Amino acid sequence: MPRTICLENRMHPSSPPEARPTTDSPDLALLFDRIEQAVDAHTAGNRAQARLWAALAELIRLARANPQIYLRPVGLAQSDAPELAADAAAFDAGLRLQLSSAQVRTIAFRAQTLEDRMPRLHAAFQLGATSAAHVGAALELITGWSEDGAVRAFDEQLAEPAGSLTLPAFRTRARRLKERLSAEPPELRHARSFAERRVWIEPDEDGMAWIHAFVAAPDAVRIVSRLNATARAEQKKVAIGQPGWRSRDQIRADLAVAWLAGDGTSTAARVRPILLVPLLSLIADGDEPIELRGYGTVDKATAARLIAGAPSFRRVATDPFTGERLRYDRTRYRPSTAQRDWIAFRYESCIDPTCSRPVDDTDIDHLR
Fold this sequence. Notes:
alpha+beta; two-stranded antiparallel sheet; 6 strands; globular
């Protein structure tokens, strides 16, 4: 077994030089130095994140207080002039930071909430003693929590663990602490959270995606239990090393897809993909990407599989140099199927920068 060297607190950047281990081995000394460098870099990164949060919060405050910086007289006369100015400032900062305006507003809001409601955790973050992920986990738990005294106690008891626990352990500690401090009956808290249940997709790389389901804990346990039991039975049907053998994780994923999509039933979900195919990709040697509406680029094999299994599909050739896509008539108020398809692959999601709802789930005839 590999030997483990326990460094305890000796490697903390604030440790005095005499606290460092002494050794005649140059390799061991180099190892300790590299760990110290990593710790220093991690702490500096936390401090930088804290400065970013603080700067964006101050930016939004300044924009709200001075809307004339961004708005003309017509805009200043609007009742929501401060928020319009804040949106403009967020867009301005986002261009420099490669962030959307919604992301800038979210960071600024979190920073302001942290400063106002959790001053001790805020101070630890500024010192670099904890990370943005730890701070974000704590902020998620105080969202909607109106018991100011309990939130203060929550802050006081979490500031130290935030700098010493891993993120999963910190989340568990924070959840249990909130349960103990909150005066609101757990049934009411569950009912409020249960009303937020939902399912959403998160695109990933290489033609893959995550499906997230925010559901009641007993339902999640039931789902996973059934997946585990069925996967165990399925895996026994094929011996290891034989064609068609799958790992337990692969079987669970395949089962989840089949159950949710209704494969093998009369109501199985069927997709009519819209593929945006640059003209050069239709030639054997073309290497331009193919896009799947609602996801992004997919490889040719995936596109071919989609076309083969779909009851119908729309293929739109695009200019390989300009990316120009086919245009549809926009003079009719009631959109045709072709117009709906055009809007779907032109916008993909709601045009409101603060909304990520898929275009299929929006009022497509409303621009304002």
